[in-house]
Amino acid sequence: MERLQKVIAHAGIASRRKAEELIKEGRVTVNGKVVTELGIKVTPKDEIEVNGVKIEGEEPVYFLFYKPRGVITSVNDEKGRKTVMEFFPQVKQRIYPVGRLDYDTSGLLIMTNDGEFANLLMHPKFETDKTYVAKVKGIPNREDLKKLQKGVRLEDGMTAPARVKFLSSDRKKNTAIVEITIHEGRNRQVRRMFDSIGFPVLKLKRERFSFLTLHGLNPGDSRVLTPHEIKQLRTIANKGSLI
């Protein structure tokens, strides 16, 4: 289920703010009844009319995208920076990113217009695994990495246990490459976790989202998710993944 104003916006009738105005003005009906409350949620089976004209729901689309560094994970940006939307000029549907990746973080991002699917993947209780590879300043030892495995205290609380793997180090440059898998989605969480143990992140890439990988893609590339992959994601999210 999705909020009525969001459905109207996705159908291309109006912006979400304008859709809210239309609802307040009594110009929207759901299954033949006038609706003026903004909090109402609807399903794909509900019949929605705006100014007496039935709106047609968009066909759901799902993309796996390799976000480059230096790109905003947003539909638009007030500062005029490049956004992920600029990589999908051929897509007619009003897609948006599932979750976020920082401006300086590259890697796997899912793009869709299916709000229920997006909420399913991002809700904390569903525990979808996300794997990152971080280049950090300094060379953490086993005890340092155990702190991340057990969970560290950040300003917004303790993190859940993580899976951590030391990949390599460069003693001349005093840097290391570490893989970390988390299922939470706090703002800049991986960077803050490494900061908390004294090893700031120099470069960060999300390499996996659940079972999905970036195999065969270069930065800026995308591909359509298969029906089987979409079904798998729904199943895994509903069951919850284990760490």
TrEMBL record:
<dbReference type="InterPro" id="IPR000748">
    <property type="entry name" value="PsdUridine_synth_RsuA/RluB/E/F"/>
</dbReference>
<keyword id="KW-0413">Isomerase</keyword>
<comment type="similarity">
    <text>Belongs to the pseudouridine synthase RsuA family.</text>
</comment>
<dbReference type="GO" id="GO:0005829">
    <property type="term" value="C:cytosol"/>
</dbReference>
<dbReference type="InterPro" id="IPR042092">
    <property type="entry name" value="PsdUridine_s_RsuA/RluB/E/F_cat"/>
</dbReference>
<keyword id="KW-0694">RNA-binding</keyword>
<dbReference type="GO" id="GO:0000455">
    <property type="term" value="P:enzyme-directed rRNA pseudouridine synthesis"/>
</dbReference>
<feature type="domain" description="RNA-binding S4">
    <location>
        <begin position="2"/>
        <end position="65"/>
    </location>
</feature>
<dbReference type="GO" id="GO:0120159">
    <property type="term" value="F:rRNA pseudouridine synthase activity"/>
</dbReference>
<protein>
    <recommendedName>
        <fullName>Pseudouridine synthase</fullName>
        <ecNumber>5.4.99.-</ecNumber>
    </recommendedName>
</protein>
<dbReference type="InterPro" id="IPR002942">
    <property type="entry name" value="S4_RNA-bd"/>
</dbReference>
<dbReference type="InterPro" id="IPR018496">
    <property type="entry name" value="PsdUridine_synth_RsuA/RluB_CS"/>
</dbReference>
<dbReference type="GO" id="GO:0003723">
    <property type="term" value="F:RNA binding"/>
</dbReference>
<dbReference type="InterPro" id="IPR036986">
    <property type="entry name" value="S4_RNA-bd_sf"/>
</dbReference>
<dbReference type="InterPro" id="IPR006145">
    <property type="entry name" value="PsdUridine_synth_RsuA/RluA"/>
</dbReference>
<dbReference type="InterPro" id="IPR020103">
    <property type="entry name" value="PsdUridine_synth_cat_dom_sf"/>
</dbReference>
<dbReference type="Pfam" id="PF01479">
    <property type="entry name" value="S4"/>
</dbReference>
<dbReference type="Pfam" id="PF00849">
    <property type="entry name" value="PseudoU_synth_2"/>
</dbReference>
<dbReference type="InterPro" id="IPR050343">
    <property type="entry name" value="RsuA_PseudoU_synthase"/>
</dbReference>
<dbReference type="InterPro" id="IPR020094">
    <property type="entry name" value="TruA/RsuA/RluB/E/F_N"/>
</dbReference>
